[in-house]
Structures are given as C-alpha cells and as structure tokens.
Amino acid sequence: MAKSIAILGSGISGLSTAYYLIEKSIQNGVRIGKIYLLEQQSRVGGWLQSKPIPNTDGEHFELGPRTISLNSYAGINVLSLVNSIGLADQVRWVSKHSKSFKRRYVVIDGQLRLLPSSLSDLFIRRPPFKPFFYYLLNDLRQPPVKIDDPITDDISVDNFFRQRFGEDIARYLINPLCMGITGGDSRSLSMRSIFASLFQKEQTYGSIVKSMFKKEDIFRDLRHDHLVSRSIDEKWAVFSFRQGIETLPKRLSSLLAENYPTQVELILDTKVEGIEFPSSDKCVINVVHKQRGSVADKIKVDHCFSSIPAIHLGSLIEKDQLKSTLLSIKTVHMAVVCMKFDSEIIPSDMGFGFLVPASENSNILGVTFDSCIFPERQTKLTVMLGGYMFEKLFGHPDQVDHQRIIDISRQALKTYMKIDDEPSQVHVAIHSDCIPQYTVGHQRRLRKIEQEIQNLPLSLLGASYYGFSVPDTILNAKREAMNWLRHQI
Ligand SMILES: Cc1cc2nc3c(=O)[nH]c(=O)nc-3n(C[C@H](O)[C@H](O)[C@H](O)COP(=O)(O)OP(=O)(O)OC[C@H]3O[C@@H](n4cnc5c(N)ncnc54)[C@H](O)[C@@H]3O)c2cc1C
C-alpha cells in the first residue's frame, strides 16, 4: 500500500525533501501516498527570506542567507536542483576571480585589514600576520593531528588550526570566520563537524597544504548538467537569484502545488506540538491549527521527516534518551541589521565584507557589503550581531531593544568604515535559535541519535545534524529521501 508521510517544517529542508521524494519515487517506481507538509508560519522558506524594500523597484534585503557557496559537492548539487526546477535564468553569480569575492577583511586593533587572496600575498607581510608562506611551511612540518577513534574523536576548531598553522591564524582568521558563519566560539566548536572535509583531508594526506595538490573530481556525477558545467567553466564562487534567495523555496512550493495538488498538502499556520510513535511503522503528529481557532488535530502517517531544530524537536518527543540527546544540540540567536543608503558610499569593488575576532571585544560579528557582492548603484550593507554572546550583550531575543541594535550597528560602521551617513532604509531582524552549534563531540551525539531512531519511522533533516549551510541541508534532504525510498523497494 502507498505510504503516507509527514514533513515537519517547510523551510528549504522540508521543501526539498518533498521535491526529492516525489521526483525519486517516480524514477524508482515507488508509489507514495499523501505527503503532509506542516508549517507553523504563514509562509514557506524558513530562514530564507528576501524582504522587499518599500518604495524601490523590486529591491530586497536578505534577512537570512544571502549567497549559496559552490565550493563543495553540496553547493553544486543545489545548482543542479535549480536547473531541474526551471530557475537557471534567475541565477546571479559571483566569479572566484572578482574583487568583490576575493577582497575580505578582518578587524585588528580597531582597523580593517585586508586578508591575503593571491599567490603574491604569500610573501607579503600584512601585520599582524607574517607572510603566509610561513604558515604553510608550519603546516607541512606538523604531523597529522592525533585522534584515537577515526569515527568520533574530536578536537576544537581553534586547537586544530593552532596546531597546524599557529596562533595568528587561529586567532585572527579562524575565530572570526567561525563567528561569521556559525555565531559560535572556535574554542568550543567541533573541527570534525564544522570543517569536516578539511579535517578528513588532513588525516588522509598528513597536511592541509599537501591535500591541496591532490585533485579530486568530486562533481563527476553532476557534470552532465549544463548549469553545473557552466558554473565550473566560468569559475562561479557563490550564487543567488535576481529576486532574492527566497526565490528557491517559493519555486519549490509552487511547483509542488501545481504539479502534485492532490498528493502534497502544504498546511500553513499549523504548529507541531507532539510526536508519538505507537509502533515501529506508525507515527502520530499532534498539531494545532493556529488560524482555525487553535483547533488541535492528530495526523497519522507511516513515516515522519522532521526539519524542526533538534533543540525544539527534543521537547516534542517522549522517548527519554532521544529527547536528551536532541536537547543537547544547542543553538545561538542572531540579530541582522540591513541598511540601504541613497548613494554609493563605498566603492562597488570594495569586497565581500569583514569579520571581527573575539579578541576585539566588539558588539558586532561582522558586516557584508551586499551591494558589492551583487553590484548595485546604491550601497547596501548588513551588520550581523549576537551569536554565542547574544544574551550577554542584548538580553532575551524577545525583549531586544531594536533601536539599540541599530545604534550599535551604525557606531560599528562609523568606527570600522568611517561611515557616518544616515541610511534611508533600515530593517532589523532578530532570529531566535537560528544556528545550531556543532560543539566538540557532535559526531558522538549524532551516532547516539542514529542508534535511537533506527527502529522509529523518523528521519532527521535540517541544520542541526549534518551541516548547517543551505547546500548541506538540501543534500541531506536528498540523501534522507533516497534512503527512505530504498527501504520501500
Ligand atoms: C542569519 C543567517 C544567515 C545565514 N547565512 C547563510 C548563508 O549565507 N549561506 C548558507 O548556505 N547558509 C546560511 N545560513 C544557514 C541557512 O539559512 C540554513 O541552513 C537553512 O535555512 C536551514 O533550513 P531548514 O529548512 O533546515 O531550517 P529552517 O529554515 O529553520 O526551517 C524549519 C521550518 O520549520 C518550521 N517549524 C519549526 N518548528 C515547527 C513546529 N513545531 N511546527 C511546525 N513548523 C515548525 C519553521 O517555521 C521553519 O519554517 C544562514 C542562517 C542564518 C540564520
């Protein structure tokens, strides 16, 4: 009999799971019954949100992710998805060789310092760094980082880079990078989980530098896709869409609604409040329909795919062991301040943005130069704040004083970029529990979760487990969908 499925959450993970389930089931001749896509908000897309700017000709602010990186198999997989859902002509991209991609800065002693980005920089001294050649030699001289268990043993990101490249790189490069991409502290984050491929290469080849000379054609099975091969030939580094990154979830949602109206049921404004497993092949989802007078309902299905963050999913499940492991994957909050100015106040090739190391004791994590990444005539900047320091600096996310966040952001632009201009548009977004923290031991936690769910009709999606970028979550959705389908054949 055709199996029924519930997908919890209609962010990019939930939507791509629905898409891959349908597409791959047709290819593999598996019949699927009803798919319920349950979403607590009145929109799809989760963190992918492109907010229209009032009084402009279709301009937008990105409140969550702004670009999709193509530096991994997962990134290239997104391009192939984009092509197959008919969005190729909407793509806008940045070349690896463009100044706007290569020029990145860190703040050191209150000043913006340009990071090395070309071979000639290997021999140039840019304080506080020595010529980069020195760090590469250091890496070549070190033995591989010693670990006992090849599957679960871990080391902090900070410790790993300190051992391989030394204090300057760990402190001024890797620490702000971690704050910028995860909102977390490199001293507590897991090397094995945050930089999995780099860690693997170091263990295999004995050094990061040596691994750079080993060419692997990781995109082999996707090269036939013309958008993928174009992106490789033209050296695309990152991409988004002309109308903003939200184009992707919106397109997936409309495609599912148009092509599979009876099979896929998207139920918005519906909060999942509990999940029960009466047997090893049945699942009951307790929901509350917020727009229908908070009516409680039960949805019975054969299998559940959850993209709800682990820390929230843990509180919905009765099973004690699983609950406590899920609850141990903590998250951080972020504040995002998007600003638009009425003229070009920074050069359009100034770069990608800057990050701030913890040693600067700043109130901000970094700034992206949005109107340089995808060139525009008027300047747009986004200031990121919070992360693991959020509550200490700004209090509870529900009670944040927005004006204070704007004032801090403007002060940071003045201090680091000498920008005193008044923005014509400002938007503040406070994102609670938005980025899961893969702290040291994350892989051990994942193995426990895998054991605990192996006899349950439950698959786990989303940023809490196997990668927190958009590409990682889409690739994980594809793998989980295919894994489930394999068991149905
Ligand atoms: C500020 C910020 C910047 C980022 N920048 C980048 C970037 O530049 N590049 C990049 O690749 N990645 C970036 N990321 C990461 C990226 O946004 C996430 O990996 C991705 O959006 C995760 O998607 P998801 O569908 O797994 O989760 P989500 O987007 O969180 O979707 C989960 C969905 O589940 C719903 N939900 C939750 N609980 C319930 C419930 N109880 N009942 C019903 N529905 C529920 C939520 O409303 C949501 O719609 C960024 C993230 C943030 C927060």
Automatic annotation (TrEMBL):
User: Known InterPro entries for this protein?
Assistant: Amino_oxidase, FAD/NAD-bd_sf, Protoporphyrinogen_oxidase, Zeta_carotene_desat/Oxidored
As its record notes, the protein acts as a catalyst of: protoporphyrinogen IX + 3 O2 = protoporphyrin IX + 3 H2O2
MF term (GO), any: oxygen-dependent protoporphyrinogen oxidase activity
Bound cofactor: record note: Binds 1 FAD per subunit.
Which Pfam families does the record associate with it?
Amino_oxidase (PF01593)
Gene Ontology annotations for the cellular component aspect, listed alphabetically: mitochondrial inner membrane
Q: Which GO terms describe its biological process?
A: protoporphyrinogen IX biosynthetic process
- Highest taxon of the source? Eukaryota
TM spans (from-to): none
Pathway entry: Porphyrin-containing compound metabolism; protoporphyrin-IX biosynthesis; protoporphyrin-IX from protoporphyrinogen-IX: step 1/1
Give UniProt keywords alphabetically. FAD, Flavoprotein, Heme biosynthesis, Oxidoreductase, Porphyrin biosynthesis
- Locate the coiled-coil region(s) and give their ranges: none
Q: Where is the Amine oxidase domain?
A: 12-481
| EC number(s) recorded for this UniProt protein | 1.3.3.4
Where does the protein end up?
A: Mitochondrion inner membrane
Query: What is the uppermost EC class here?
Result: oxidoreductase
Cofactor(s) for this protein? FAD
Matching NCBIfam families:
proto_IX_ox
**Family in the record:** Belongs to the protoporphyrinogen/coproporphyrinogen oxidase family. Protoporphyrinogen oxidase subfamily.
Function, please? Catalyzes the 6-electron oxidation of protoporphyrinogen-IX to form protoporphyrin-IX.
Entry protein name = Protoporphyrinogen oxidase
